[in-house]
Amino acid sequence: MSELILARLQFGTTTIFHFLFVPMSIGLVFLVALMETLYVVKKQEVYLKMAKFWGHLFLINFAVGVVTGIIQEFQFGMNWSEYSRFVGDVFGAPLAIEALLAFFMESTFIGLWIFGWKKLSPKVHLACIWLVAIGTMLSALWILAANSFMQEPVGFVIQNGRAEMNDFFALLTNPQLLVEYPHVIFGALATGAFFIAGVSAFKIRKNLQVDIFKKSFNIALIIGLISGLGISISGHTQAQHLMESQPMKMAASEGLWEDSEDPAAWSAFAIIDEETQRNTFELNFPYALSFLAYSKFGGNVRGMNTLQAEYEATYGEGNYIPPVNATFWSFRIMVGAGGVMILLSAVGLFLTYRKKLETSKFYLHTMVWLIAFPFVANTAGWVMTEIGRQPWTVFGLMTTSAAVSPNVSTQALLFSLIAFTLVYAILAIVLVFLFLREIRKGVVYSTAEDPQVSIDPFNKGAYR
Amino acid sequence: MELSELWFILVAVLFIGFFFLEGFDFGVGMATRTLARNDIERRMLVNTIGPFWDANEVWLLTAGGAIFAAFPHWYATMFSGYYIPLVFVLLALIGRGVAFEFRGKEKAQQWKNSWDWVIFIGSVLPPFLFGVLFTSILRGMPIDANMNIYAGFTDYVNVYSVIGGITVTLLCYLHGLMFVTLKTVGELRERASKQGQKLIYAVLASLVLFVGLSYFETNLFTVRAGVTIPLIGLIVLAYSSVIILLAKKRDALSFTMSGLGIMMTVGLLFVALFPRVMISSITSANDLTVYSAASGDYSLKVMTIVAVTLLPFVIGYQIWSYYVFRKRVNGKDMIY
């Protein structure tokens, strides 16, 4: 039992930590590629400076994302060997393809991009960063194809005591993947966008290199607003899909014990007692849950107790209700953070349009704090997705407690948990330190030669 | 040939590629402490592998992914059975990866020194641990009827596996020196070449010791002796030729030969393993083979199509990146 808790704790820590950097990388590299495109098309030096400055920050972030990703790949086999045996036939393929298709592309072309400023023509150099950007998005596609299988197993048959793939195309067109992928990608773009917007806001407010940072701010906010809207649309679609594929997760995210009324009300706030299975306080908005679930102001939503009875009939005795508070609150934190992001990016674009951005000190100050919001939303989203799926690892096929490695001792798990967590802490501190340093330094206006970049890329300030 | 056999070969190819490419990265990482005498030289060394190391490491990730997809039982048995060694491999790879990125970001000497040590340790540990891992796999691990390893300390660490670890580390170190000889100029190049010339003898000695012990510890000489024994001969030949090639200043050829040496050594292991992927020291009935550990035919077919389509592109653009950065790293250019 304690092995299970430690293994879960490790999975949670590693995945959450890893996924702080992944969306940031996907978002930042896309924006950097956009800036370099503007440079190549418009031939204005300012866009080159922008691409290089944000590129520095991207690279620091990318490095941490890459190394923590290695643990991700290893830990399935290390901590979850029974899981790996059971689903490897289906689940392993997207992971292998991710490495073959995406990791090679990212890593090779990032090397060419960092070291190739002087060796490649501007267009080829630009192509390299786009290939990195595409690589990161392909990587997300394949890992999410694997994750979608855990949420909604498709394209398999149970044979020889394990899940074996029998339809590769079904894995790729998994309905869960089709709603999850755009949601994650828009979330990633927003993460990069609000980071750039926040840092730029800080610089504009301090009146430092305003020309460059205003341009960065505007590009970021446009991407931020587009992705904010994309997040909410794809998120809404996903919620509707959840009603069919994992109604228990949906009910838990609403703290809904009994079947709802028709039309169903949505609680923005509730005090949930998981012991006695009831809510002692609810702040309800009529019709809203029906709309969330069905896009219309009618229809009832099944509650956890009903679903529990249904699942017991299908899967046998057991507790099929996930941790309700965690699912309920992570959903609200995610949605709330997303809403604020959309609102403030719209305000920012309005201020820019009215040419009042530089004088709106309070707004600029707020935008600095907003940097944290996408990270909070990304994390909360995954907490809801993964905890809301419990007790299953693969929905309907394998429980989490059956997935853990039987031969890994508590001591070994504890050792690795402490060691990795310690390393994560060190990495986080160093990363923040380096970020602040680079940001404080600002855009470096050196001569056209820019020797640190082209000649000694390993040296200070330059790449790597 | 069955698809599972093909995938065994593909996994072998991925590991061979990994040790050939990341092998010199590890070696260069070790050389930052043992060859470089000052900060400029250290920077030159790190520069030689700068554009490449990340992509080289992906060969390992792809090998891991391929094992997961094609041989789920192999993946599950090996990764859970080698828990602690793999934790250290991961810690080393994490530290090393970020150290390359971080070391030049701050001017303070203390900062650089710390990350340089991380690079060094992160470059020594993985080849050593992989050597231990593969050697002990070849020797056999206590695998029960449920394909789970319940091993004690001496199953992982014993004279044979430690010799295996040292051998792989030395092979990588030599390979790294050959790469430095090929990719730098002036005094650093000279010194790398000289150190390589001395190291060759240690490499040959540890190889002979390793092969000798294998005679007692494994069935390297009884399964497929027709392949393994000639292969051992070729490995020794390749490394011996480096002595002459270095003396003649044939940098590219000596690098090629040390590369061939590493590739054949890893190949030797896979030849000796086949058709087993994990050997049980309890009973051969518990061995995992390419047949018992493999995924279903459908899955393997899909993976084969994907791999055959993608691998040529991957190899193509990796070669291109080596072509783009084909020039030697010149110390003069680095002073800004």
From TrEMBL, chain A:
UniProt main location, coarse: membrane
Transmembrane intervals: 16-41, 53-71, 91-115, 127-145, 184-204, 216-235, 329-350, 362-384, 413-436
Pfam family, one: Cyt_bd_oxida_I
Metal-binding is among the record's keywords: yes
Bilayer disposition of the protein: Multi-pass membrane protein
Record keyword Membrane present: yes
PANTHER family tied to this protein: CYTOCHROME BD UBIQUINOL OXIDASE SUBUNIT 1, CYTOCHROME D UBIQUINOL OXIDASE
Name by which UniProt lists this protein: Cytochrome ubiquinol oxidase subunit I
Subcellular location: Cell membrane
InterPro entries named in the record: Cyt-d_ubiquinol_oxidase_su_1
Family under the similarity heading: Belongs to the cytochrome ubiquinol oxidase subunit 1 family.
Entry keywords, A to Z: Cell membrane, Electron transport, Heme, Iron, Membrane, Metal-binding, Transmembrane, Transmembrane helix, Transport
From TrEMBL, chain B:
Sorted UniProt keywords: Cell membrane, Electron transport, Heme, Iron, Membrane, Metal-binding, Transmembrane, Transmembrane helix, Transport
Localization in the cell: Cell membrane
Membrane topology recorded in Swiss-Prot or TrEMBL: Multi-pass membrane protein
Highest rank taxon of the organism: Bacteria
Source species taxonomy: Bacteria, Bacillati, Bacillota, Bacilli, Bacillales
Family as reported in the entry's similarity comment: Belongs to the cytochrome ubiquinol oxidase subunit 2 family.
UniProt protein name: Cytochrome d ubiquinol oxidase subunit II
Coarse class of the protein's main subcellular location: membrane
Pfam families xref list: Cyt_bd_oxida_II
Species this chain originates from: Mesobacillus maritimus
Transmembrane segments: 6-36, 57-76, 82-102, 114-137, 157-178, 199-216, 228-247, 259-282, 302-325
